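Here is the promised in-class demo. Please do not try to memorize the tokens; focus on the logic of going from shape to residues.
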């Protein structure tokens, strides 16, 4: 799936901040391995009556700060190393944003586009049946990820509740509003990311209003990133792309019309007034803000020298590899690291847990206010440390997040 193994990328960052934190090698070794890993064969009866076995994973990386939290993705090219890397990132994300949670991630190797609705529901419920002993509101709380959504979470929550013998809304997040979901969850990752972009733009003297923005990836996060960037922050969205390729118009696009076009036709191609470009060409466009919002490893040493954006905001997980990170920092391009920038999803998932535990329901304005504070507080802390030590924002973010986890492990007597 990636040119650089995501888990190895994360471990390199850990090694880098371990030196600054003067971390014992044995503690470092603990942090570089998942605390628990579950591999499972998941049998599902297909619509034709035949049984098909799917490969499933759940990695609970570190629970020093609290029960683990992380999405479940359904993807035909899923690998355990990607899941490990994402679970590790979730650990540092929760720590950085001061959530009382550890990090986890799950996945099933499948192509949901080839499954009927009934097959998808049976697979979702079967995943919970296999993983039930390791899940729960005080143990490990999954959420949606790539190719999963609120409907899948509703099925999984219902299956967990059936096995537990009681309705347990807090066992999953990202659920429909009518089943204990939170207002503001659907666009939380994109909205939270823009709060970080706003702060970073202020620091470098950039005005977001009218700024040219390119969004690579037009799924849930990317489409909301484009919409919120235009409608809330006044940015000019000049390029977007999906798996079929990209489109470009230096004057900007009406994003709501783009979303409608993509919904109606299944792609961004043939939108009026657009010039067709490749995903690779989008990365190198002369824009103010570049938003990688798809999968991992889209910016590496091969194209980092050609990036012309002033800010690269990682709305996706791991879109900039280690080599590219160094190149962009040396070129003076601000890279807003993934587990800082895309923390909005897990923050609002945490808010959903709080609402479930208290049998409460917050309005959207309250969710937005609390999300904004969480994101801006985290950014300011990372930025101040980065300036103080003259290091990239990513290194500062890792130093803060890892130090908190190590201190929790020390207080619990683990190290």
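The designed amino acids, position by position:
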């Amino acid at each position: 799936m990636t040119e650089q193994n995501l888990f190895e990328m994360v471990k390199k960052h850990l090694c880098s901040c371990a030196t600054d934190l003067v971390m014992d090698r044995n503690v470092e070794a603990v942090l570089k391995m998942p605390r628990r890993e579950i591999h499972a064969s998941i049998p599902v009866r297909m619509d034709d009556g035949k049984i098909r076995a799917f490969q499933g994973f759940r990695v609970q990386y570190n629970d020093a700060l609290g029960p683990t939290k992380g999405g479940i993705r359904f993807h035909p090219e899923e690998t355990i190393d990607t899941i490990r890397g994402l679970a590790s990132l979730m650990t540092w994300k929760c720590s950085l944003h001061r959530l009382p949670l550890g990090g986890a991630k799950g996945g099933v190797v499948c192509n949901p586009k080839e499954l009927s609705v009934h097959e998808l529901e049976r697979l979702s419920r079967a995943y919970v049946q296999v993983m039930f002993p390791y899940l729960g509101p005080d143990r490990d709380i999954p959420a949606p990820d790539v190719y999963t959504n609120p409907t899948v979470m509703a099925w999984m929550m219902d299956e967990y509740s059936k096995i537990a013998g009681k309705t347990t809304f807090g066992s999953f997040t990202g659920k429909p509003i009518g089943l204990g979901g939170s207002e503001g969850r659907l666009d939380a990752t994109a909205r939270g990311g823009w709060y970080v972009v706003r702060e970073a733009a202020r620091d470098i003297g950039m005005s977001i209003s009218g700024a040219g923005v390119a969004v690579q990836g037009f799924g849930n996060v990317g489409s909301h990133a484009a919409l919120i960037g235009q409608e809330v922050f006044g940015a000019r969205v000049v390029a977007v792309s999906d798996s079929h390729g990209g489109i470009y118009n230096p004057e900007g696009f009406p994003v709501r019309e783009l979303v409608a076009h993509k919904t109606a036709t299944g792609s961004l191609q043939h939108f009026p007034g657009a010039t067709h470009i490749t995903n690779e060409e989008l990365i190198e466009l002369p824009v103010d803000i570049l938003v990688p919002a798809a999968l991992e490893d889209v910016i590496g040493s091969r194209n980092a020298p050609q990036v012309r954006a002033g800010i690269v905001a990682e709305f996706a997980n791991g879109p900039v590899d280690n080599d590219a990170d160094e190149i962009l920092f040396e070129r003076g391009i601000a890279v807003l690291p993934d587990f800082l920038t895309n923390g909005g999803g897990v923050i609002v998932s945490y808010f959903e847990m709080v609402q479930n535990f208290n049998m409460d329901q917050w309005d959207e304005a309250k969710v937005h206010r609390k999300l904004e504070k969480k994101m801006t507080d985290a950014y300011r802390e990372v930025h101040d440390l980065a300036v103080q030590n003259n290091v990239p924002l990513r290194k500062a973010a890792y130093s803060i997040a890892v130090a908190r986890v190590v201190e929790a492990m020390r207080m619990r007597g683990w190290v």
